[in-house]
Amino acid sequence: MATVTQSTQEVTPSPGSERAAPPPRRRIGDRVFSGVATGSGITILVILVAVAGFLLMQAFPALTTSPDVLEEQGYGEFWSWILPFAWGTVWASFWALLLGVPVAIGIALFISHYAPRRLASGLGYVIDLLAAVPSVVFGLWGSIVLATAVQPLWMWLNEYFGWIPFFAGQVSGTGRTLLTASIVLAVMILPIITSLCREIFLQTPVLHEEAALALGATRWEMVKMSVLPFARAGIISSVMLGLGRALGETMAVAMVLSGAPVITVEVLTSQNPNTIAAVIAQNFAEAYGLKTNQLIAGGLVLFAITLLVNMGARLIVSRYKEFSGAN
Amino acid sequence: MSTLTSTTNKVNPLTAGQLPGFALWVTLAGSVVIGGIIDSLVFYGFDIWTTAFLGAVIFLPVIYAVARGVEGRRAAADRLATALVSGAFLLALLPLVSLLWETLSNGVARFDATFFTWSMRNVIGDGGGAIHALYGTLIVTGIATLISVPIGLMTAIYLVEYGRGPLARGITFFVDVMTGIPSIVAGLFAYALMAIVFGPGTVNGFSGSIALTVLMIPIVVRATEELLRIVPNELREASYALGVPKWRTILSVVLPTALSGIVSGIILSIARIIGETAPLMIAAGFTNSINTNPFANPMMTLPVFVYDQYAHPGIERVFYNERAWTGALTLIALVMVLNLLGRFIAKRFAPQTGR
Question: Which ipTM was obtained for this model?
Fold first, then answer.
């Protein structure tokens, strides 16, 4: 770089170079405009800090008040109150990922490598429709339609696979169980994971694919050897983004589950561990005083969990960006 | 001539060792039929879902076994993978179709004039409507759009036109992180903000707008940033070459070029947040009456209306469920119309990229 500037200085000055020489004057419009633009960018950072700050301020009373007072005016000691719900959040999200991720990756592969070219974009749009459905509609559908539809299936699972601890216990008669809520969550995270994976699968270098096919690989072997290894980081991060969504999803769980503060691995009974988000949604309207603070503190815990998951996902994406091209 | 006819009688060497094209479909049809027979004999009577499920369960090992016998292990694995991947897509269509169908069939009963002209004030049982919720949704979403679009758009301009170095990288990163904020946390934030500024228990439409703003800004930034980036650099350079200052270049060259995309991006982000429920429950609250003042008293919104009708029914539950379904139908219709509009604008008014 230095040599370049030197060489330009050595060039004999042309007639116009004296006018170009003075340092570029920044016009007032430019300064205002770039100031506003930069300010907007900084506003976003401020908002993010404010979200954490205001939540912290409102959660503070619940975190510092002695357990006895919380017992009287709130929901009881904070950490023992939040623990079952934190467990429920993680457990429901786990099942949602277990059910949703294989299907989502399958769909992404189907659209990117299996479906006829002309149909592919249309099929992608169909899956995007799932993302457009508001969560409250998912909740309504899950609690009224899906719960009754899967109830016999849960009975059957319990009867024949009851020896697996997850499916043990007394089956709920309404079908509104943790596993039902997880199905709804799985459906809701499908479009996120699918659309990200699809993008990444499509970016696999065509030469890799053609090389595999030229060596006589079947389509599945081609996918296994060239597409999936290439997309591994992208798949992981898209799954983590789906996890972030599942952890924070409120309405579907709040409407499907009538949760209880229990820690259990059973997913088919009527005693379901509730999720943090659902507990807040179900109780906030009636809460007052310290109870409100306690619910906000619960929200803060949720915020911290999802923030960690999302930041992890984004870090993976940015680290592997040059390889996968995912964003 | 004689050699040609003799070879056609023999096995075709190009397709030898492969299953004929119809084998796949015959196996599939056979599996479903067997599934149906098992379903109606063993289980509690014929049912299309159980049949489809059993058919799939039978089909997968059968096609694998058949292909393995005729075509070999690798081809069999390929067939199995194809079946599974296609099956995944069909599986995902199930909830979508079921959801749309149920919403349509259950919601159409109350999709009438009363629903769009009445509020729920003093309504017990039949009748009543969601006009108060429609007003609320329009006001709350409108204010949220008015706040988030300028901030989001200017941030996108910063990132594309000005952003260099750690600040821009940080903003990009945190915009991504911000898209992952759980919606209910946004609602709690708006509530906490209002509680600290105006005293505890301040619940109104504007508070709901703030919650939605937190969710909407990152969506707007992501949508518009992408579009500003695809504006060809030649246009900017041509403008600079004419001596136009940078801010004028952005305002009168870059933005107009990307305008259709930006408008469609904004419409799509409205579609994304118009269905948000949890933050509005917390920040905007519940009411049965029309309230058009966003700065005082709770304001009902359509998603919260759906939840309220479902979760807090009166004595005759059927009427409340009907209203919930109709509210859901209205909401889906609204989102779909916005989506189609956004995509239409993006397609119809897209600038020529010169490629």
Answer: 0.86
